[in-house]
Amino acid sequence: MEFLTHAAEAFIGIFNAGGKTFVGFVTGILPTLIVLLTAVYTIIALVGEQRIQGLARFFSKNVITRYTLLPLLAMFFLTNPMAYTFGVFLEERHKPAFYDSAVSLCHPITGLFPHCNPGELFVWLGVAAGITKLAETNAAPFSLPKLALFYLGVGLVVNLIKGVVTEAITRLIAKREGIKL
Q1: From CA 74, how far away is CA 2, in angstroms rounded?
Q2: Would you tell me the Gene Ontology cellular component terms (predicted)?
Q3: Considering only Cβ atoms within 10 Å of each terminal Cβ, which end of the chain, N or C, has fewer?
Q4: In this structure, how many other beta carbons lie within 10 angstroms of the beta carbon of residue 144?
Q5: What is the reported pTM?
């Protein structure tokens, strides 16, 4: 009988811990996300959708900006999963590589701009908690904002590499299958 009591307490304890985490989010990150989303939508409204789309078209013309700045712009302004719609500004042969780059940016952008992909926020918060704990013992090599900047920078470099490689693979497969791109 004692076993069942402990099992029931452990079972409800999981939900109690989840509730505490949820309350932490409601009083912590959720207000930040709401204000950030409001700010981004305000920027879009002030700048104008046509100008944002024009910038996207401009970035799509160059291989470097196509797989770095275009996914960054798309993820920042449209967030995940709407960011992939920026592929509409690309030629068919570039769409698979753009998608690969955009989807790969979902996590690195979250450290600086949590509104972009809140689903990845849990991963970033885990990393941030570890760095914060290291900072308390003076063992952390740098601050969280610096880590977020490096993380985004490395993510953009990896996106460029992935975009170029995926574009080459797309050409190779299309040629092998007799598909004209």
Answers
A1: 56
A2: membrane
A3: N
A4: 15
A5: 0.69
Dist CA 153 CA 162 (whole Å)? 14
Question: How far apart are alpha carbons 52 and 44 in whole angstroms?
Answer: 7
Domain count, the chain: 1
Q: Which domain holds residue 31?
A: 1-177
If one counts every other C-beta atom within 10 angstroms of the C-beta of residue 86, the result is 24
**Token pair listed for 3:** 């076993």
Tokens 């409601």, residue located: 26
Helices 29-47, 2-27: axis angle to 10 degrees equals 30
Which tokens sit at 77?
């302004």
pLDDT in tens, 82-124: 888 888 888 888 999 999 999 999 888 988 888 888 777 878 8
Alpha-carbon gap, residue 174 to 112, rounded angstroms = 37
Maximal C-alpha separation, the chain: 71
Cα–Cα distance for residue pair 109/4, rounded to 1 Å: 45
The letter for the amino acid at 87 is G
Residue 32, both tokens: 């930040």
Residue 88 per-residue DSSP state: G
pLDDT in tens, 3-51: 878 888 888 888 888 888 778 777 876 787 778 778 777 887 888 878 8
